[in-house]
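ASSEMBLY PREDICTION REQUEST
Request ID: AP-0331
Submitted by: J.K., bench scientist
Number of chains: two
Total residues: 274
Priority: normal
Notes: Please return the full assembly, not individual chains.
Input sequences:
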Amino acid sequence: MKTAQGIPLDYYIWLSAALFTIGVLGVLYRRNAIIIFMCIELMLNAVNLLLVAFSNYYNDAAGQVFVFFIMAVAAAEVAVGLAILIMMYRNTKTTDINILNRLKW
Amino acid sequence: MTLNLFYFLAFLGILCALLVVFSKNPVHSVLYLILTFFAIAGHYVLLNAQFLAVVHVIVYAGAIMVLFLHVLMLLNLNQDAEPHKSGALKFAAAICSGALLIILIASLKGTNLITAEQTVVADLGTVKNLGKVLFTDYLLPFEITSVLLMASMIGAVMLGKPEKNQSTE
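STATUS: Completed
Returned structure:
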């Protein structure tokens, strides 16, 4: 139950679970849409860390290739998401998600 | 030694992640998130994924967080004058995420992992090894990723440009 460096794999599972939960907490806790985006990035990174830990544990490079693809998808998601946020800010002058719950203004 | 380094990086990552959520100023949140990403890059180095650690720092700390900072400054949100949720909603959010953490820990507590044969490959995370896997087994997903990046680039440019009726006013 240890990685190649002698750290138990369980520790990485608990760390990833904690980081993922902090991301969920941020999404539920804050109203600023940009902070919510950052917390989604935090959740993606928790999953990446667990993928790399398991890739090290099983000596399989496929896990690290998956992390590459997740990084590419995260970059695309952030670019489009921030463009949508800027467009919404131009119309509503706020990034408060309680204002953004209507489809037309 | 390695274990102490793990504890330090884990503590730094979790502390900075909490500060991302609880700091009032959005710019401070971005800076704490960059620190969290550096801690995660340190974990990658510990896990023998050196190339991935470098790519992680370049992509996240170098590209994505700079994009976030630019948007924050473009929208002039760097005052701490943002609206906050009511106390009851915050309490409910804390309860929900705490319950999620308890469920995750409880469900993972009793699981037994398949014990792998520990044939340690020292150069697992090197460019040579990863490139071999990426360009043989995962060639098609790699090519499709380029289409995704192209589509998102065009989408971001289309969404970001000012609307016509606004610019004529």
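REVIEWER COMMENTS: DSSP finds seven helices and no strands in chain B.
SIGN-OFF: pending second reviewer
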